[in-house]
Amino acid sequence: MRRFLLALAIVSQPLSGWAQEAVDQPSAGAAPGAPAEKQATFRSGVDLVTISATVRDNKGKLVTNLNKQDFEVIDRGERRAISEFRSERAPLSLAILFDVSGSMDIAERATAARFAAFHLLSSLDDGRDEAGLFAFDSRLREVAPFTVETRALKGALGEVDPFGATSLHDAISAAAERVATRPMARRAVVVLTDGVDTASRLSPAQVSAKAAAIDVPVYIIAVVLPIDDPGSDRATPSSQRRAPASVGTIEDLARWTGGALYYSSTSASAYKAARAVVDELRHLYLIAFEPGAAAGWHPLEIRTSQKDFVVRTRGGYVAGSGSR
Q1: Which domains are delineated in the chain?
Q2: What three-state secondary structure class fits 296?
Q3: Which is nearest to 119 in space by CA: 91, 159, 153, 92?
Q4: Strands 186-193, 6-12: parallel, antiparallel or unpaired by DSSP?
Q5: Which of 32, 109, 164, 169 has its CA 20 to 30 A from that of 296?
Q6: Which mean pLDDT values do the consecutive 10-residue runs of the chain (324 residues) have?
Q7: Phi and psi, residue 253, nearest 5°
Q8: What's this model's pTM, rounded to 2 decimal places?
């Protein structure tokens, strides 16, 4: 398995159905009695599959100006009509997870994790986006509850100290369930870790299957030494090694869920990567459609009218269950 100094994993989860109304939410800094900001919400009980998708052009740049008619949903080889479509900028809800296992105390990995988290929080809109801080080794614990006062969370970054074993895969799964209760349309789990899992019950393949079933893409920013960065001219041959396909790595976990892996081996690229992740979350396309009648796993393909655009989304959904 690749050796990481730091991995920043992001899991994003849209809700299970579209709402027909909006709720009133006070704007940041608004005075009492001031008009509330209209924020779109989702309503449960609507039998729709929801998926989030990002689109990039052939140069890797985000494509942010597409409309409903530009997309095509292919479900088990059959075209599905898009019932609802959203692309507007919306608040984010992030659950930021710190790996506090003993391995994070080596080579100042914990310091590097706090550095990346600081830039991540700085990329959020204070008073509009929300975040909560969590830590994990062999279990998940809350460090600071969700709040829109994201600047204040920077002071809590020093409260996470390394110790214990690592249950990275289990933590990603548990954190996805936590953030699923948040009211924002664009939710995410952020995991800061060295990527070494020593105690999880779940494999990357199992976590990705669960995440894909509920539309939770995982974004990973691996802040590594140049010798562990495949994009660096100083990378060693071992940085290219992969785990068996049946088990997978955290890179596979990201890819299988519709997410992506980012590498960074300098302070400047860590900042750039954190901003890139938040930018991508802000420009997710949210698509809803009626599920297929047949029970079981439905592989999905999302296409655009521009053949050279690359669409990234989850691999499919499970029909005939409560999870879409």
Answers
A1: 6-15+90-282 (3.40.50.410)
A2: strand
A3: 153
A4: antiparallel
A5: 169
A6: 40 40 38 39 62 93 96 96 93 85 72 83 94 83 92 86 68 79 78 70 73 70 72 67 54 78 74 86 93 91 94 88 54
A7: -55, -45
A8: 0.76
